[in-house]
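Project channel, design review

CF: Before we commit to the Metabacillus malikii constructs, I'd like one complete example in the thread so the newer folks can see what an input/output pair looks like. Taking YueH-like protein.
RD: sounds good, go ahead.
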Amino acid sequence: MKIRKANVQSGNDLITNVYIYENKKQEFSLIAIPDIEWSTIVAYEEEREEVRNRLTASLIKTVEPDVAEELVAKLIFWVGEM
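CF: and here is what came back for YueH-like protein:
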């Protein structure tokens, strides 16, 4: 499991820790952001643009659109480097 520091301001709160667990055997990554009580699974075979759209749509339900965009950019990068 990797822990990344997002350091994204969401209103009065700071979103800091992002937990990423990679399951190589079952070919997916689990992403969790406890600060906003959010998590998702990203399968290896998902296209990058499809993941971007899905994560954005999901995060917008929890945080403001500009915060969601910033988080998604970081998440895509971190999952891609694993």
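RD: helpful, thanks. The first strand starts at residue 2 and ends at 10.
CF: Helices lie at 48-59, 65-81.
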